[in-house]
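[SOLVED] Need 3D model of a two-part complex

Original post:
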Amino acid sequence: MPNIEEKLKEIMALVFEVPKDIINEDTSPDDLDSWDSIGSINLVTALEDEFEIEFEEEDIIEMLNFQLIKIKIEEIIEG
Amino acid sequence: MNSYLELLKAKAHLVPSNNAHTIELLVLNNITTNPLKDYIEYNCALNQIKANITFGDYDNISQNALEFDLNNKVILIFWELANCLHGLEYKIDGFSVEHITALEQKIQSELRLTFGAISKASLVIMNRFTALPFSYQQTQTGALEQLAMRLNAFCDQYAPKSIKWINTDKCLVQSGIENSIDFKGYLKNKLLYKHGFYVSYMRLIQPYFNAVTGQVKKLLALDCDNTLWKGILGEDGFDHIAMDENTYKGQSFAAAQYRALALGKKGVLVALASKNNPEDVDKVLETHSELTLNNDALVAKKVNWEPKSENLKRLAGELNIGVDSFVFVDDSDFEVQLMRDQVPSVHTIQVPKNAVQYYVQQQQWVNYFVQLNETQEDAKKLDQYKQNVQRANAEGQSQSFEAFLESLELQLTIHKNDKTLIARMAQMSQKTNQFNLTTPRYTESQIAAFVDSDAYDCFAFSVKDKFGDSGITGLCIVHYINKQTAHIDALLMSCRILGRTVEYRFLDEVLTDVFSKTAQLNATYKVTNKNAQVADFYSKIGFEQSEQTETMSLYSMKKATFTAANAYNYITLHYA
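Solution:
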């Protein structure tokens, strides 16, 4: 689902206030100063808005980098 | 904008500009409010303010207030009562009196420390204590609500008077509990508020950010017809305009006058900006029994037929205040759009067509005039300003008025001897008072006879622009007296289409048509109580005056002297 990947990049860029092109599959909180605990909360809010989904607490703990977030969203959407 | 994500997108699309103002904002909280940062940055940018926002440590309000350098900072305090103790909202009703008192005293001492520390800040905004998100379904007043009331009373007594208090219950009313409170977020991350809350909250606090950066409005400019009263003075007449607060029809308009009067008491300057005959409006101001907003309350009256944008610019010069401190209220799409185009720094408010909506909208007027410090002296400035106006010498015309007209995409449609319009043409002759050169009152059968007769031509027109269609709003009846001579029997237009040069374009076409049949055209201006605005209309379009008395002027034009002006090319012409 390339669409999810694009949207995820776009949203991460908006939430963390960085250019879209610096975000890649491996981008994690270590790479972005604004990806702290508050940034994670904002990211979850924005992703829930965009994909009309709801994350569980254990999902959020597993969302450690771009690739893992993408997989988690795909799982939830596909049920 | 329906979600946090949409706000982020809108914010990313803001055109980066050199914001004229900057505020240093510190948010102190005992609850997670971090999305607020994006809402503040966005709304401030729309108001030419760059907001540099930092957050204090979570749940360390009084400590941070003591430690941080608050000099010249704006402080925003979110002190969430339910989170003063984890789960307080469901625990407190089981607490003993002693337990609650101990908790209350702890909060009070933290409040005292905070109040003592914030005197250096340039502005402190703090939320009233509330239990509403946790109590709105309960019949009886619970312990959390009682505690909120007592703490608010404590703040009234001990807080510095400079603190601006925000009642966040208003956000819940504006956006609804579903859109403002996020219980899931609260239980997971102490993130109690969501999108709808922040949107409403910004509406409440933005006026303070504008005030602290000096962007306070000073003058309220009000249109008259359908703004101060219901109806059109020039058409409906003195006795048929409505502003009686004891009638449903008049009450919304009476309310507008009282609201303006109350603003005047706060020191806001109130002026009129109306296209009307000045004598007519003066008569209302001096003698109308239902009027509340009288001459004494007004700093100036710009009642004439000039563009309102010019009038307001002139008034700003006379008062020596910036036109960007003006708020302009008018019911007409055209006037509001013209103002936005010509003087965008004037804030415009359009009166809703629905009187109830108008009544509700007036609640917001006062928000434009929020000041940080209000004094008794403010109201006394009115007289000084009035004198400024009297002294001032008003001159100067806009260069770009034509460009504005061009942008309207005006379309003029002329209907010649159109049988389907007989009723409307008769009605116009009956109702039109102001732009009416001879003021004849014709019945439908009379108009029908003109339409059928070879000796008469009836030209009616409609006007349309990109904002809408005004319908059939003008009429000219020409009588061919003999083979050489014709006479303009009637010429009238609705005032709501004036100011767009349509009248000149229309006459150009009528004259071209008439002079294809005749060598000389005569015209008459008959004076009435209401048509002073067109006293020189025929002179303006090139007629020669042949005779003048107190009650009328006679004009004529010869075919040889007529040339179509072709000057109004921005008006597209059609024939029906």
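Edit: Chain B is about 40% helix and 20% strand.
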